[in-house]
Every structure is written in C-alpha cells, then in structure tokens.
Please model this.
Amino acid sequence: MNLQKPYFTLIFIVSIAIALNSCQEKKKAVNQGMVEYAIAFPDINPSSPIRIFLPKKLVMNFKEDKTRIDLSIGMGAVQLKYLADSDKEEVKEVMQLWGNTYVCILRDDDLEMEANLLPNYLVTQTDQKKKILQWECKSASVQDVESNKEFDIYYSEEIGSNNINWHSPYESIDGLLMEYTFEHMDLKMRLTAKEVKQIPIDNEVFELEKGYKVISKDEFDNKLKELMQTVGM
Model:
C-alpha cells in the first residue's frame, strides 16, 4: 500500500471541510452551530489494519466568516484543528501531539499554493432531493475534471454561514454539504452529516490556545507525514 495516500487524503479531507458552502445572501435557518460527519472509506477492505488509524468522524463549528474543524487520527494520538477566517483570508492549521502544539498560518501565496492542490470539480445542479436528518437536501452532480469520475452530493440551503465554502472546490454550492464523496490518489471517502446543532458558538472557539509553536507549512506537513508512517499509514 502506498503510505502517502492516507496522509495526502487527510490533508485534502480537511481542505474541503475547512468551509462547506459559498458566499450567501439568503438568511439561513441555521447560521451558526455545529455539524458532525461520519467518514467512510468504501474502497478500503473492512479487515485492513489501516482502518484503525484513519479518522472516523469530523466536527465543524461555524459562525459568521469563521469555521473550525476538529478530527483525530492514529487512534487519537494526533489531534488536528483547522481554523479558517474568510474575511481575513487566513487559515490556521493546528497539530497537537505528545503534549506539544504546532501551528501553521496560511495566507496569500501559501493559500494559493494549497488551493492549486485541490481537485478540480465540475459541479452541476440537479432536480434530485433527499432528506438527511430532518433537512430537505438538494443534489448536485460532480465530475472530477482530471479523472472524469462522477458522483452525487447533497446539501441543505437552510444551513450555513458567510463564505463557509471559501477555499474549497465546492465554492458554487449554496448550502452546507450533508453527504458527499471525495476521491484523491485512488482513495475514496464518503462524508455524511450525522448531527447538526443550532447552538450559539463563542468567538473563543475560533482562537488559538496558549502554548503553541508556529512552524512553516513544510515543517507541519513533514511532521504529519512522518507520524503517519510511524503508525503504519
């Protein structure tokens, strides 16, 4: 198995999830809150030991122009957080492991370079609908321009905050993604919303905690890659 696949996949999962809908003028029924996604890897053998180390869920908090993503990998050995602010055009990537907290701050050229790594998706709206949780969701057909593979996604126009899909290949979607497929380097994932809560989100949720060390993007990625290889991913 190519050890780089799960590592790069985790990076792209978060890149997509940093923000899950576009700049919106409509008032949403839920404009701040929390959503939890279950993450499935349909093409990985159910008995494969690598499943132990892959993330099983992703939690996102959203409010106004800010989002925060939380997930853990390596059986909880590593905690990853991604704080995005579309108004400032800034992303903070946070890694917590072995009692240390490392932060990489992305702006300007760094964001542009990362955006160039995202998949190129052609998104076409359809007339299909599906109920997920209590939400009536619309559908879109997505084509990966490079591989020509196609899949459907579902989203709710009733949920979302400002620019929640900023810095994402799903920028044209006007609503929170509720179920979608993502594929990179032949590794397919399916993320499905399992819970959506309309709750007040404190601004401190989107702030960095004390005691962190700022490192470069290359240092951050290398630390994560080395760690994934250490645990067998």
In short: Residues 4-230 form a domain with the outer membrane lipoprotein receptor (LolB), chain A fold (CATH 2.50.20.10).
